[in-house]
Amino acid sequence: MPQFRFRLRSLETLRRQARERCQLDLAAAESAWQLLGARSGELDRELDKLRSAVRAGVEPGHVNVVQLAAAGDFERGLRAQQERLREQQAALVEEIACRRAALIEADREVKALGKLCQLRREQFQADERRADGKSLDDAALRHLNREPLA
Q1: Are the beta carbons of 36 and 86 closer than 8 angstroms?
Q2: Helix, strand, or coil (residue 59)
Q3: Which of 29, 34, 61, 100 gives the lowest tally of CB atoms within 10 Å of its CB?
């Protein structure tokens, strides 16, 4: 009896590999988004430290203009970094959405091929049962049509 062989098995394998790549791409984008979030938190803490240091360094009646100017420059640099991080995070949110949609589509394609494979397997099994039934019917007819031995 012949074995079932899904003719689109190689395509199914390719689709599974594509789905795995999509999963990895999505995970990488989400990881990058988390790293940016962590860096943003670090910048927030640095700004808080800077403000605390500036407040602690200012004494009534005595202001170090050079130190205040340096602190202002450093704060502007930190804020610029924060803004770049926000822009990168916004871009990553869009990228994550695109990668998630690609993963959903790749998964849909794998499932569709899986369903097709199952359908073909069931058709093959039904054909095999019909062929076996026909063989049995033919054998029974041959047996009935035999002439009795004298």
Answers
A1: no
A2: strand
A3: 61
3-state DSSP helix/strand/coil % of the chain, to nearest 5: 85, 0, 10
Q: Side chain identity at 146, as an amino acid letter?
A: R
Q: How far apart are CA 108 and CA 15, in angstroms?
A: 10
CA 130, distance to chain mean position in Å, is 43
Q: What's the predicted TM-score (pTM) here? A: 0.72
CB 11 within 8 A of CB 113: yes
Give how far Cα 12 sits from Cα of 3, 17, 104, Å. Answer: 19, 9, 16
Count how many Cα atoms sit within 13 Å of the Cα of residue 91 in the half-sphere of its side chain: 8
| Per-residue model confidence as pLDDT tens digits over 28-59 | 999 999 999 999 999 999 999 988 888 877 77
